[in-house]
Specification:
The protein has about 550 residues and is α+β, with helices and mostly antiparallel strands. It has 15 helices and 25 strands. The strands form five sheets. Strands 1, 2, 3, 4, 5, 6, 7 and 8 form an eight-stranded antiparallel beta sheet that branches. Strands 9-17-16-13-12-10-11-24 form an eight-stranded mixed beta sheet, sandwiched between helices. A four-stranded antiparallel beta sheet has the order 18-22-25-23. α5 (about 190-200) packs across α9 (about 340-350). The longest helix has 23 residues, at about 90-115. It starts with 5 loop residues before the first strand and ends with a helix. It binds pyridoxal-5'-phosphate.
Length: about 550
């Protein structure tokens, strides 16, 4: 007899807490020796380890009243230990039981396997960190069984391509930020490529970016903030970085501007520090320029009370592991206000197509065979009409499921980053004679008693820090290289500001040789050079423990005072 899904009455009590007569669901066929796995039935509860069971879940028979299937109390019994009743679950309900069991075990697995990936405060007190032997990462994934369960659950669905989890993540991130729409992509670099590409669309008429148009950007930072400008046939115009805020020197904006040529500004909130959004948005409004905020390192940062990534026309996120939340690989483009930009970003993301049906769906526009576009025949399938020269930059649905679990933790992650930064700043304050520390935009100084002092603009910034940047003063008795080497030797993760002055990178040196008109530079870029030569940052990510932070500050102090 096929027992899978069958309700059975147990001859022996297996659990005194269960209702009488003791009932169970057989989860699969008995093995060759007559043993089968069963899940006991209990009174209905709201527990995450029980699934409700009612007559609607049955393929055969009925239940007098609803029950619950306990997925945490499985037993293997011989078939002589129970009597089948004429009641059987629908296959879909039996599958749901198996999913709940798999996820119950997934959580148990993850609690054991990934214990070290939890937020630092949960790790403190455990013997996981040996100073000088265990690496203090500068960044990393912070997750628990929620994310692993989400990934497994979405994988069990096996939808795979961007689908329900992606839709939900896009809505949830858009709601968190307060932007019109968010589109999920497979990396922050893809998000940057799409943001620029979308603005080249012919559908924007006069406002489209055309080959040769100039885009103002910053010299020191991450290469894929700049590469999409060149990849779209546009001309990056580099302004300098301020060596303390690490953001653009906005006094150079007007100098960079060329009427009729400059069409956009694309800059990052460096290491989580918002750039001066009053000055930049004012500049963009005055000259009718597009603004793209590279918010990849700044999710959760605020300018006054408003989140960064909500000031420009478009903004971008990265969900690579060092970032504020992760889904392995991943990124997003935020459409801040103008919903007309959404189908453009989406088109470039999804092969350049004109159609906006989600994957697996047809005829969302209700006129799949009713369009005539380009020189195609009337009624050509809209699914295969391409209005742009696009890409395919979609992530997978399980990535979005992981991202949703991470997003629920974002506020605590952001707070941990701020707390860790403040702790490093306070403890390392006595080293100000040899080290200079990053300043948030609009801050003029910092003191242990008062925190930051601010300029007279009336604006404040609250960075959701990506890292703790230190600049070795020129008169310090050691170089940045000595300092970074000492951190490395002590196993303290450290990084430069990504590519430093990007114009000194081989790719840009070659580009200048190949095509000197490919980009333009304003001024000397002395600030970008100083950042490249004098700065290094360590981590503030939520996975750091008290012990790691203490070891970091002790090591830095010992090195500076040796
Ligand atoms: C400012 C900035 N923009 C873009 C990116 C690219 O993101 P991804 O690594 O997801 O491609 C990074 C990467 O860390 C970054 O720091």
């Amino acid at each position: 007899m096929n027992l899978a899904g069958r309700l059975v009455a147990l001859h022996l009590a297996t659990d005194p807490g269960l209702p009488s007569p003791h009932l169970a669901i057989v989860l699969g066929e008995a093995d060759d020796h007559g043993f089968a796995l069963v899940a006991p039935l209990a009174e209905p509860t709201q527990s995450s380890t029980s699934l409700s069971l009612s007559s609607a879940d049955l393929g055969e028979g009925t239940l007098a009243s609803p029950l619950a299937i306990r997925v945490d109390r499985l037993t293997t019994l011989h078939i002589s230990a129970f009597s089948p009743r004429p009641i059987r679950l629908r296959p879909s309900k039996l599958a749901e039981v198996h999913r709940a069991i798999a996820l119950h075990h997934t959580r148990a697995f993850s609690r054991l396997q990934h214990a070290n990936q939890q937020p630092g405060e949960r790790l403190d007190g455990r013997d996981t960190f040996a100073p000088g032997q265990t690496t203090v990462p500068y960044a990393g994934r912070v997750f628990d069984s929620d994310e692993v369960e989400a990934a497994v659950s979405a994988t069990l669905d096996f939808w795979l391509t961007l689908g329900p989890e992606g839709d939900a993540f896009e809505s949830e991130l858009a709601a968190y930020l307060g932007v019109r729409r968010t589109l999920l992509v497979n990396s922050g670099s893809s998000a940057n490529l799409l943001a620029v590409s979308a603005l080249t669309s012919h559908k924007l008429g006069d406002r489209r970016l055309r080959p040769g148009d100039e885009v103002i950007t910053v010299a020191a930072g991450f290469p894929t903030t700049v590469a999409p400008i060149l990849q779209n046939g546009l001309v990056p115009v580099f302004i300098d970085n301020d060596p303390l805020t690490l953001n653009a020197r906005l006094d150079q904006l007007e100098e960079a501007f060329v009427p009729g040529k400059t069409k956009a500004v694309f800059m990052a909130h460096t290491l989580g520090n918002p750039f001066d959004l009053t000055a930049v948005t004012d500049f963009c409004h005055r000259h009718q320029l597009w603004l793209i905020e590279d918010n990849c390192d700044a999710l959760g940062s605020r300018y006054d009370d408003r989140l960064t990534g909500t000031f420009g026309d478009l903004s971008t996120q990265s969900f690579y592991p060092p970032h504020h939340l992760t889904m392995g690989e991943g990124g997003a483009v935020n459409i801040v206000r103008e919903t007309r930009l959404k189908p453009l970003v989406e088109s470039f993301r999804d092969w350049g197509r004109d159609c906006w049906c989600p994957s697996g769906k047809d005829n969302t526009c209700n006129k799949r065979f009713g369009w005539q576009l380009g020189e195609l025949p009337e009624g050509y399938d809209h699914k295969y009409i391409y209005s742009h020269l696009g890409y395919n930059l979609k992530p997978l649905d399980p990535q979005a499921a992981i991202g949703r679990a991470q997003l629920r933790k974002l506020p605590t992650f952001v707070q941990a980053r701020i707390d860790h930064w403040n702790r490093l700043r306070t403890t390392l304050a006595p080293l100000e004679d040899v080290l200079e520390f990053q300043l948030p935009t609009h801050a003029t100084g910092w003191s242990a008693s008062q925190g930051f002092s601010w300029d007279t603009s009336g604006h404040r910034t609250t960075p959701s820090w990506f890292g703790f940047m230190m600049r070795v003063r020129p008169d310090a008795p050691f170089s940045r290289r000595d300092f970074a080497r000492a951190l490395d030797a002590a196993r303290i993760g450290n990084r430069m500001l990504f590519g430093g002055n990007l114009l000194r990178q081989p790719a840009f040196v070659q580009l200048r040789r190949d095509n000197p008109a490919a980009f333009r530079v304003v001024g000397e870029l002395a600030g970008a050079d100083r950042i490249m030569n004098e700065s290094v940052f360590t981590g503030v990510y939520p996975g750091l423990t008290d012990a790691m932070l203490e070891y970091t500050t002790e090591t830095i102090t010992r090195f500076c005072r040796r």
